[in-house]
Amino acid sequence: MRRAVVRSIGTAAATLLVIGAGHVVYLSGFCQRHQRWVRVNERHEAVIRDDGYAYARTGDAVYACSSPDRIGPLITLHQDLDCYCAPAEMGAGAIGRLLGGQCVVDHLAPTRGDETGACRHAHCGRHLDP
Question: Which is it for the CA torsion 79, 84, 88, 94, positive or negative?
Answer without folding.
Answer: negative
